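G., the chain you wanted modeled:
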Amino acid sequence: MKLLKKLREEKGLTQSELGKKLGISPSTVGMYEQGRRVPDVPILKKMSAFFNVSIDYLLENVNHNVPTKMPKDLNKFLQQSEIIFDGDTYNLTDEDRDLVMKSLEVAFLAAKRANKRKKGDTPTK
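Predicted structure as tokens:
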């Protein structure tokens, strides 16, 4: 997985730092990068989420960087038992999910208003 080294370096991470994010040792990261070992499925999933690429891309089964497809319904996505964000795994409580949804609603509203201003429209209340 020589591609792993490229992705890691693009993020400015050492093997040790990436290992901590993925829950594996730096030497394991090195072996993956050298092609001496192949990651198992759970590690591939973590890598895929962390680097925002498909597992096929990580395994070099495709020629281009195709981001993983997010579910269309964010609420359904948040109902999963585990959520990986920026390489870290979270187990959200119902209160956590509500907070995330409320925060996103505010962010989407702000983005919508900003887009209207760019088009020359005046935002409405």
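The mean pLDDT is 80.

Shout if anything looks off.
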